[in-house]
Amino acid sequence: MTDFAASAVPLSGGYGGQTFAVSAGDEDAVIKFYARDPERAAVDASLLELVHGLLPVPRVLDLKRDGSFEDPPYLLTERLPGINLQVFLESATDEQRQRVGTQLGELLARLSGMPYLKAGMFRGGELTVEPFGFGDLAEYVAGLRLGFDDRQREGFAAVIDEAEDVLADGVHRVCLVHSDFNPKNLLVDPETARITGLIDWEFAHTGSPYADLGNLLRFSEDQVLAGAVLAVLRDMGLGERLVDLGRAADLWALLDLAERAAEHEIAAAAHRLVSRMADTGTLAGGRPALDVVH
Length: 294
What we know:
alpha+beta
């Protein structure tokens, strides 16, 4: 067992565990405890080892696979350099946002190129894929508590039809999905605008090659950053209607988040977006057009 005794500073991010910045030996590290989902510790460790060298992820320093709620499993990793991308973008220039967007597009392309045979959740350190246990999207929505009235339910049925039509024209394969691919889980060097880390893999699974793009653009109004991302993905042959494809693939995760609107502000924002989609009967739900090619 690694001796990581030293100061422990809580870090933001991650809903499935408690994360702290610590010192481990002679280097700074990050430790995450898995009290609520103990089996996930081994999954996250294996995922980081799987993609290390392909994506900017931290090295695994130590893993405790078993434990209890009082003494939970943990994953200890190196602490990557850089600052939170969400903070960086608040004052970034157009040139910096374009540079970041190009790199994000490259990361998304790499993720979409890591194929799997079936969609589902990872189980165990061997990364066995367990298929999702729900039916089609309409059936899934019917079981959610979203507070829709009859008019909104009818409007959201049109959204589902649009999403299914859009996805029918996209790439049909399954790949690795980070599932929380957005600025709060990315690190950047503020001097060079170079992406230095993709962190918090607790929701990673196998699924649509457009799901991470949809997560990234879910609340985005940044034409410069989005344009750079989309240009890279179009060059990779992922299609033309990328914003619509991303929004359609993101619908499952968006709805799951929206049902938990009372838990935190991001979930509340997701519920407001889903409600606008139901009100307008459109996948865009009043969001700005981000495509640079039509």
